[in-house]
Recover the amino acids of this structure.
C-alpha cells in the first residue's frame, strides 16, 4: 500500500480534483498541477444514479496511471454500487478508493468493501454527504484510512461551500488516529480552507479553486498556507 495517507511527508495534503481540468488536455493538466505542488490527484467518479451527473470511469484512471506511474490517485466513487467497482479501479491503478456511506446498507457491507480494497493493496475511504447525520459514520471510521466530509452535495464542481458540515469534521477529527486522514471536498478556496484546517481536515480536495485559476502554483500554495497556525497531527 502506498503510505502517503498513513505517513504523509507534510500536511495538509492538497488534492486537485481533475473534474474542473480541461478534459481535452488531461495529461497536461495533471502534469501542471503536480508541477505546481499537488500531493496527489483526486478523480471524481459519478454514475448518473447516485448523483445526477456522469464523469469518468476506470479507463480515465488507467490513463492517468500510465502517464504518471508514481502519482497517488485518490478515487472518489459517487456511485450506487461501489462493491462492483473495486476490482476495475484497483486494476486501473488507483491507490485510494473512497465510497459513500449513503451507498452502503449494513455496516457489514462497508466492512466487506474495505477488506476487498485492502486485499488488493489499496487504502479505503468513506465519504459522508452534507445532509447525512455524523452518527451514521462514527461507528465505521476506525476501519478506514481516510474519512471524507463532503462540503457540497456531490455532482458538480463549482458549488458553494456548506459551512455547517464543519461540525462533522470536528466530531470525526476527535476520533481519528495519527495514521488516518480527514479530507474535505467541495467549494473550498483559500478562505474556506482556513476553517476546514482549523476543524481538523488535513486533505483538501479542490477543483475550481485550482483549475479555474491562471496560476496553479499560487492556487495550491494559497490552499496549503490557508492556516499558518495549523499544526500537523
Ligand atoms: C463534487 C466532487 C468534488 C468537486 C469539487 O461532487 O466530489 O471533488 O470536483 O469541485 P469544487 O472544488 O469546484 O467544488
Ligand atoms: Zn470529489
Amino acid at each position: 500500500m502506498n503510505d502517503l495517507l498513513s505517513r504523509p511527508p507534510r500536511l495538509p495534503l492538497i488534492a486537485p480534483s481533475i473534474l474542473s481540468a480541461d478534459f481535452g488536455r488531461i495529461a497536461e493538466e495533471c502534469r501542471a498541477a503536480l508541477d505546481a505542488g499537488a500531493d496527489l490527484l483526486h478523480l471524481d467518479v459519478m454514475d448518473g444514479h447516485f448523483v445526477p451527473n456522469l464523469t469518468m470511469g476506470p479507463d480515465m484512471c488507467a490513463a492517468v496511471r500510465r502517464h504518471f506511474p508514481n502519482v497517488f490517485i485518490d478515487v472518489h466513487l459517487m456511485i450506487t454500487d461501489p462493491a462492483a467497482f473495486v476490482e476495475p479501479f484497483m486494476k486501473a491503478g488507483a491507490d485510494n478508493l473512497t465510497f459513500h456511506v449513503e451507498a452502503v446498507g449494513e455496516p457489514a457491507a462497508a466492512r466487506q468493501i474495505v477488506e476487498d480494497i485492502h486485499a488488493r493493496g489499496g487504502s479505503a475511504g468513506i465519504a459522508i454527504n452534507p445532509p447525512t447525520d455524523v452518527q451514521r459514520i462514527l461507528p465505521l471510521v476506525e476501519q478506514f484510512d481516510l474519512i471524507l466530509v463532503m462540503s457540497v452535495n456531490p455532482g458538480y464542481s463549482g458549488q458553494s461551500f456548506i459551512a455547517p458540515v464543519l461540525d462533522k469534521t470536528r466530531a470525526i477529527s476527535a476520533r481519528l488516529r495519527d495514521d488516518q486522514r480527514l479530507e474535505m471536498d467541495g467549494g473550498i478556496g483559500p478562505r474556506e480552507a482556513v476553517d476546514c484546517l482549523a476543524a481538523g481536515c488535513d486533505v483538501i480536495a479542490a477543483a475550481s479553486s485550482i483549475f479555474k485559476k491562471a496560476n496553479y502554483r499560487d492556487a495550491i500554495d494559497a490552499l496549503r498556507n490557508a492556516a499558518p497556525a495549523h499544526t500537523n497531527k
In short: The first strand starts at residue 13 and ends at 16. The radius of gyration is 16 Å. The chain has one domain: 13-224. DSSP finds eight helices and eight strands in the chain.
